[in-house]
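Reopening: Crp/Fnr family transcriptional regulator still failing for me.
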Amino acid sequence: MTPSLLTYDLPLLDGLSPRDLTRLDIRSRVLNLTAWETLFQESDRVCDVYFLISGALMAIHWTEDGREIIFTRFQIGDHFGELAAIDGGPRSLAIVAREESQVLVLERSSFLRLIDAVPDIRNRLLLSLSDRIRQLTRRNLQFVTQTVEQRVRSYLVSMAFDRGKLHPGAVLDDMPTHAEIAASIGANREIVSRVLSQMRRSGVIETGRCRIRLLDPGSLADPSVPAATGIS
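Support: Ran it again with your exact input. Result attached.
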């Protein structure tokens, strides 16, 4: 077994010990990525599973007209790539490093042996896939039922909630650019910038370089607050 497999705090592998894996030929390695380096492209046929151990990664799709859509930003410890590992199909999204990053690469054959031999890993994987389907369903509903302003508000609320900062005066540091927010919610940068400016003038937020301060998170999260005029 490669020692690095259990060196990191990886939720999918929580509770495993070297003894659990002594009879399995587990192969893994650490890969270093530079900022904006692509780990793999859409339709690539490499079927390994990856764990983010440092840095920041994004899952991206490029439309036929060249527009970028950001599907996911990964947190430290997250795993991805398991769909291709399970069915042997091509990658559905590209993975790009937003900054210098490290990933632990678990070879497909090793991953398949793990989920076959260790029920806890298999159960966690099923729960993770179920959660992902629910997230995609919610996201699709947002695209078809919400205005751009409502999507921006939902995006900020979700980010604040995930960071434990959904309270007055909280500061969200290391914020994505307006272009990245737009790519995440299916809008364009100009409209997102206009929405954020409107929210700043209304006293809901304060904005700075790569940071947003929440002045009135209750108003931010209130679906009854009307969208800015002319933004849809």
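The chain has seven helices and eleven strands. If you still see a failure, please send the error message rather than a screenshot.
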